[in-house]
Amino acid sequence: MSNPELDVVEFLLTTAVYNGDRDLDEDDLPPAYRQVFWTDGRIERPLSATGQTAADATDVDRPWDAVGDLMFTQRDDFSGDIEFTDQELAEEWFLDRADEDRIRANPALAAAYGEEFDVSHEAAREVNRPARADRAWIDSLLEEYFDEEEEEEMLDLVDIRAPEEVEMTMDDLVLTPDQEGEIHKIVKAIEHRDYLAQIGLREIGKLLFVGPPGTGKTSVARALAHDLELPFVEVKLSMITSQYLGETAKNVDKSFEVARRLAPCIFFMDEFDFVAKTRSSDEHAAIKRAVNTLLKSIDDISLIDDDVLLIGATNHPDQLDAAAWRRFDEIVNFPKPDRSMRSDILQVVTRDMEIIDFDPDTLAEITEGLTGSDLRLVLREAVLSALTEERTTLTQQDLEDAVADFEERDNLKNLDMIDGDADALVAGGDISGAGNDESHDHSHDGEAHDHSHD
Ligand SMILES: Nc1ncnc2c1ncn2[C@@H]1O[C@H](COP(=O)(O)OP(=O)(O)O)[C@@H](O)[C@H]1O
Ligand SMILES: [Mg+2]
């Protein structure tokens, strides 16, 4: 049902309306339009509608062919600009053909013509993804901050994702009541930042997630970014050591700068125990400097003043010293899931699967001690082994078998850790892939890292 003529006129009209109304900002442009106008983290007026921008924004291959016959359009052959000869006529033509849905998806037009369609400007803004959620915006911002060489170094250290690129959502996660409470509090704090600033309550917005590997710490942080539509900035602390040493402190500094520019955003620091480790050991001076820069940056940044929500995560709370603890104002505990939680997790992760005689409670009973991540691995094994028999429908038995396999493999893994004699294990039989598990699951690399250190 695409209508190239109408699509292109909508684009032209939007640029005209946007250029003419200074009260409109980036959030008033539909994401597809914005993406063609970002430069250095800004969208500058006037927006120019050319054959190229119109094509990129509307997905109409030859915009001029689509609207050239209309009596109110003209093209400047030299610049490629497409313009209205008579904006009033263009408005009339467009408003005759547009419907309510089209206006609701375009806040700039809702501001100008919403009344006729019973669509308020606010309503349109609300359904339109905010500009900070655009990958194109983030890229243009990074370009401004880092030259190409620097950017490569930086990308080792920080990973920046637009909320549109985060796949995890809160609906995919099973939380403890305590976790739910903490998350709810922080969501409210974000909503009411202005009020908190006004009453001078600033010690808020630095969370530390604590718990064994695979309990959902990284996932919850990402899901928050997704659900709150905030960019997600992740610093890989262990990469501090692998950086070109002289530059590390500078890059840490810059990553906070980037977070400030991206704000409101979530700044996530995985493997936070690394900080404590570095402080106590006799590391290279440059690394110590980087870690100190990091701690100072943490002190300086604030949810209330900078709109940055800081989340640290650690699998080894015992390694944190008082100085590290003190920097967080809420500690969120991520325990291994209890029986009812395991049952819930199993139901969530099998949501889109067909399983005959599925009995999550029984599975929960035989999976004592397994984390959410373990349960996912169990599921994956069950799915893969059913596939070897060309089956895409699983049975409860498949799952129970996979649990047994998992436990067996887990035992071998523990042996490996106690004896440190991997050769003996390989000779022992079918454990192929046991050591590779983590490398398949991107969200799992925190754990892989742990094993190499233990
Ligand atoms: N409570 C949970 N509910 C649903 N899935 C979970 C839960 N805990 C862990 N998982 C799953 O396990 C995997 C690893 O979790 P992750 O967030 O990386 O754990 P952590 O960061 O604590 O090591 C993810 O795919 C995640 O979806
Ligand atoms: Mg993690």
Describe the protein in words.
By secondary structure, this protein is α/β, with parallel strands linked by helices. It folds into 3 domains: 4-128, no CATH class; 135-333, Rossmann fold, CATH 3.40.50.300; 339-453, Helicase, Ruva Protein, domain 3, CATH 1.10.8. The protein is 56% helix and 9% strand. It is built from 26 helices and 10 strands. It has helices at 4-20, 31-34, 51-58, 63-67, 87-97, 100-104, 107-117, 121-127, 135-145, 148-157, 177-191, 193-198, 217-228, 239-242, 245-262, 273-280, 285-300, 303-306, 322-325, 339-349, 360-365, 372-388, 396-419, 422-428, 437-440, 445-453; strands at 73-75, 82-84, 158-161, 206-210, 232-236, 265-270, 308-314, 330-333, 354-356, 393-395. The strands form 3 sheets. The chain has a 6-stranded mixed beta sheet with strand order 3-5-6-7-4-8, with helices on both faces. Strand 1 and strand 2 (82-84) form a beta hairpin. Helix 1 (4-20) packs across helix 3, helix 15 packs parallel to helix 17 and helix 22 (372-388) crosses helix 23 (396-419). The model is unreliable at 420-454 (pLDDT under 50).
What CATH calls the topology of the largest domain is Rossmann fold
Tell me the strand percentage band. Answer: 5-15%
User: CATH superfamily of the largest domain, please?
Assistant: P-loop containing nucleotide triphosphate hydrolases
Roughly how many Å apart are the termini?
Answer: 59 Å
Content-based structural category: alpha/beta
CATH architecture of the largest domain: 3-Layer(aba) Sandwich
- The radius of gyration over CA amounts to 27 Å
